[in-house]
Amino acid sequence: MNASTHTATTNLLSGTQHTQVGGSTNGTQSPQPPLQSVQMITAKIGWATSMQGGVLRTTDGGANWSDVTPPGLPTITIATARALVPLGVTVARLVATDNGHLTVYSTSTGGARWSQLTSPTLPRTSSWPQVYASFPSTEDGWILATSSPGLGLMATALVHTTDGGQSWTQVGAGTLPQSGMYETGITFNAAGDGVISGTYHGSSLTPLSVTANGGVTWRAETLPMPTGATYLNTYPPAFWGESGLLPAETGSTHDLVFYRTANGGQDWQPLAVPLPGNGASYFIWSMLSPTETFATNGFVVYQTADGGHSVTVKTNTDLQDAWSMDFLTATEGWVIVKGELLRTTNGGITWTPAAQGEQLPPVGSSTTPSGS
Predict the structure, then answer these.
(1) CA 256 to chain centre
(2) Contact predicate 29/317, CB 8 Å
(3) Which phi and psi (to 5°) does residue 251 adopt?
(4) What is the pTM of this model?
């Protein structure tokens, strides 16, 4: 985990109550199952979600995993979604939806036991198949749910807690993005500055909404468009206090550009020039600090440590079909490729299957100015 804000945007189609729901469904260490997402807290301890919707935890850097899924979670279907938010080595929140009902779980024991918190009340709809969550602290958190699209439009609902999930308040009514925006996530910092990112699937409008009052009201934010780009798809930022980074993809070329803020997301400016997609259909990334990021398009790994003024391009083993990346330091990182977790200890130059410890073929690296 590499940011001071904790956000979950993974959707697996992926009176106060604190009901104890018991321990995990398994809890025993086992080799790695197919993974969907990973977030490491230390070099040894981390959390993950499986392709089947389970919650997993490792204490040996990803070689083995314990199934710490809360008992009784509904089977993953097109009408269900889950969002896992790790908050520390033993602390996490899990948000789950099932046919319009939202349930929040909490653990402080590494998943050995989970508490079922008060269930937020959402507006009536047939289902909430997408859910996103952001918890800047164990007490303060937001959950964004979106409905299935109807005539290109999706309903959205946002709830907020300030007491660790004992109670929830619906916020943002009337100002949340509605006009065809497909949300991709939500992030808040400790001051209550927040961002909802998304895509308009080709519209020239910038799919980004910001708030400065804890989500009570929202406004559309316009990002400077990179040269040659016709539209942007935006994704959840990371915050370090008032500083933050926001990733965005450009149009049909799928180039990646990072935007920086110094005022909690109220204004954003691009870093240098976009990273070229080179024919790839996607990017994944990991943001360590306001100046240091890693990203891959499946063919190469990009790294910048100076805010985008220069970019290190690292020839890579095949990372195509990668869908989750997490760097803990400038040298140590993890990536999931087709469900398998790979690990690097040299900044992405070489990768080792975490479950097997086998070294992949070494390759070189070169450093070039980002504008070249």
Answers:
(1) 16
(2) no
(3) 35, -145
(4) 0.87
